[in-house]
Amino acid sequence: MTTPATRPQHRRMPGWAKVVTAFVLVLALLFAGIRLAVLPGVKDLFGTQTHDRSGPALLKSIKDMSRYDAASGNFQVVVDLEKDAKYLPDAIRGTRTLYVGAGTVDAYVDLGRLGDKDVTVNEDRTSATLRLPHARLGEPALDADHSYAVSKQRGLLNRLGDLFSDNPNSEHAVQKLAVSHIGEAARHSGLTARAETNTTGMLEGLLHSLGFKEVHVSYGP
Question: Per-residue DSSP letters for 6-31?
């Protein structure tokens, strides 16, 4: 008497395993879509289009300027910013950004601070003496066209967070740090001294053209 062949028994996948499998598949599809978007010929399929729907710029206020911009310095700084997480390796959570920041800082003399006692002219108008305030530095201005990220290293959790972030790969932190370093470099660059020299030359040339033979310019607090 022959025994019937036994049918193979299929084990059912546990519920937790199904959840993990589905999660892995979703992540795989997301990363596959991102990588396909940069492949030649598929870029148009996954790429995005940019439409500028901004309204017109509105004038909020007008401020009269009385300062003379006498010098401008161009600066460049390499920012190496690293953020680590406690008890987690950098491959899991952590970022490191290498950023080249370029910017300018202007040095100016505020001529609007001159009073009657700061300008002295002799009776025959051949000699003039001016006492000006010391030159100051303006706010550093980052040049977006010449500033760029050289490299970005992000942990796995940071990459996943960027997928659902409204502002992925934000460079605000390194840009702010670059502006701070540029401002610090300007304070030690002698830019204000150059601005005072240029202001003196401008005023001497202007007053000499008006008939003054002697022009004395000094700076004080």
Answer: PPPPPPPPPHHHHHHHHHHHHHHHHH
Cβ-based neighbours of 119, under 8 Å, separated by 6 or more: 128, 129, 130, 131
* The token pair that represents 73 in the structure block: 């310095």
> pLDDT tens digits, residue range 11-67?
566 666 666 677 666 666 655 555 544 444 444 544 567 777 788 888 777 776 788
pLDDT tens-digit profile of 186-198?
A: 999 999 999 999 9
Q: What span, in angstroms and rounded, lies between the C-alpha atoms of 23 and 17?
A: 10
* Residue among 29, 46, 30 at smallest CA distance from 38: 46
**77 phi/psi in degrees, rounded to 5:** -140, 145
Rounded to 5°, the CA angle 65-197-105 comes to 55
Name the token pair of 39.
Answer: 């492949």
Radius of gyration in angstroms for the set of CA atoms belonging to the chain, rounded to a whole number: 32
Give the contacts of 87 (CB within 8 A, at least 6 positions apart): none
Q: Are 178 and 79 in contact (CB under 8 A)?
A: yes
Question: Has residue 168 got a pLDDT over 50?
Answer: no
